[in-house]
Amino acid sequence: GDSVITVQLTEEDKVEDDVVFYLVFTGSTVQHCTSTRKINPGSLETISPGHDCCETVKVALCASREGHPVLVVAEESFQFVQDEAYDAAQFLATCAGNQQALNFTRFLDRSRPPAADVDFLDEKVALAFRHLKLPAEWNVLGADQSLTENIPRETLMHFAVRLGLLRLTWFLLQQPGGRGALSIHNNEGATPVSLALERGYQKLHQLLTEEEAREPDSWSTLSHTVHSGDYSVKHHRGLDVYMLTVEA
């Protein structure tokens, strides 16, 4: 989800300015309808919706004009694929609280990737996390809520901070157990806050310690979502397009 889609119109589809085009994505359990913006008479742009599973969906290009019936201009298949970021997000979500798995992730720290790779990883994994269907009882600290803050252990927050993943850290902070993870020491006596300070991650330290800290700049900050029951409406300010998602 959240990639830019370009639609090329054929000569016969290039019509007057009062025609509005939109795309309808129909999956097995979820349907999305996105508005588009015209780049030029022959091209449209929109944002791909974040889908709930990896599958091939049917996408229809529709045209609407006041006083006329909605016209289906073209239909095509569109595939949501499972990539490394999706796999990583699923793995991390599953291993929340699993000490063996969390300690395993620490080997990534020994071969620190370049800053550009970290930024790419951060954006992709945080985006994948946003689109995961996390269980209602999911918690950053794992399933065992009987553990106290005094028990040293590794957490997902330690993982995100150790690698300097700003956007993933922000996402985890908004989840149950996110704030509580900030005061938990690992076996070396480090909290996520002290790790950020020790490694010189100033923006990350600010994010963890300031109450009014804002979400880090990313593609996701260009959008605003409103939920209502089985419906959600998302506005992408960058392209000024809207997306209606309905659970069937």
From TrEMBL:
It comes from the Eukaryota. This is AKP13 protein. GO terms for biological process: adrenergic receptor signaling pathway; positive regulation of canonical NF-kappaB signal transduction; regulation of Rho protein signal transduction. It comes from Pedionomus torquatus. One of its GO terms (cellular component) is membrane. The gene is Akap13_1. GO terms for molecular function: MAP-kinase scaffold activity. InterPro entries: Ankyrin_rpt-contain_sf, Rho_GEF.
